[in-house]
Amino acid sequence: ELKERKIKVTAVSPGWVSTEFFMRSSLGEERNGPKKIKPLTTADKVVKKALRASDKNKPVSIKGAYWKGLHVLAKILPRRLSMQFWSAMQKK
Q1: Angle at 80 between CA 40 and CA 27, to 5 degrees
Q2: Strands 11-13 and 41-42, how do they pair?
Q3: pLDDT digits (tens, 9 = 90+) for 46-68
Q4: 84, 76 in Cβ contact below 8 A?
Q5: pTM to 2 decimals?
């Protein structure tokens, strides 16, 4: 719907991004929280990747192989199984 206006849209899915919020807070101290899950990436890297994807007219920008793998799994696995997996990770 935005093509006629020559507006490009790229959804950005960066995974966990190392931000001042997480570094200053106690959030993410648990085993599977943002401070413990690797790879964390920086906002600069996410922006550079997203701009490159947008320049190439890609609909989605996913930063890193780990997050791309999870994206593919989420498409392949039934939603119920994906949610059970995520819930189990949060309880560890």
Answers
A1: 30
A2: unpaired
A3: 999 999 999 999 999 999 888 89
A4: no
A5: 0.67
